[in-house]
Amino acid sequence: MSNQPLTPAHTVDLARSIMNDRQAADFEENKECNFAINPAGIGRFRVNAFVQQANVGIVLRVITTTIPRSRNWGCRPCSRMSS
């Protein structure tokens, strides 16, 4: 980790480092690519890499590996699905 802000070049390098060759080709052609990564010991993520205003951006969303039971959602009993 670093306190330095990412430069546009660093962002491009980071995006490419988490893509396979097919994803990188798709990204180059369409200027966006959606895919998943699963770094060992860290977790699962959905990734959206895109070009916006001539700069590369990356959004990562955590995918939980456990599905919560409906009783833990905080909904009233009549609005919950059976589980």
What would you say this structure looks like, in words?
The chain is an alpha+beta fold and 83 residues long. It is built from two helices and three strands; from the N terminus they run ααβββ. The chain has helices at 8-17, 21-30; strands at 32-37, 44-52, 55-63. A three-stranded antiparallel β-sheet has the order 1-2-3. Strand 1 (32-37) and strand 2 form a beta hairpin. The longest helix is centred in the N-terminal third of the chain and has 10 residues, at 8-17. It is elongated and about 50 Å long. The N and C termini lie far apart (41 Å). The model has no long low-confidence stretch (mean pLDDT 88).
Break the fold down into its secondary structure elements and pairings.
Layout: H1 8-17, H2 21-30, E1 32-37, E2 44-52, E3 55-63
Antiparallel strand pairs: 1-2, 2-3
What key phrases describe this protein's structure?
single chain; 83 residues; 3-stranded antiparallel beta sheet; 2 helices
As a percent range, the share of helical residues equals: 10-25%
Q: What's the N-to-C terminus distance?
A: 41 Å
Main β sheet profile = 3 strands, antiparallel
Strand order of the largest sheet: 1-2-3
Mean pLDDT: 88
Relative strand content: 25-35%
Compute the number of helices.
2
What is the N-to-C order of secondary-structure elements (H for helix, E for strand)? HHEEE
Q: Which ranges are low-confidence, i.e. pLDDT below 50, for 5 or more consecutive residues?
A: none
Could you tell me the radius of gyration in angstroms? 18 Å
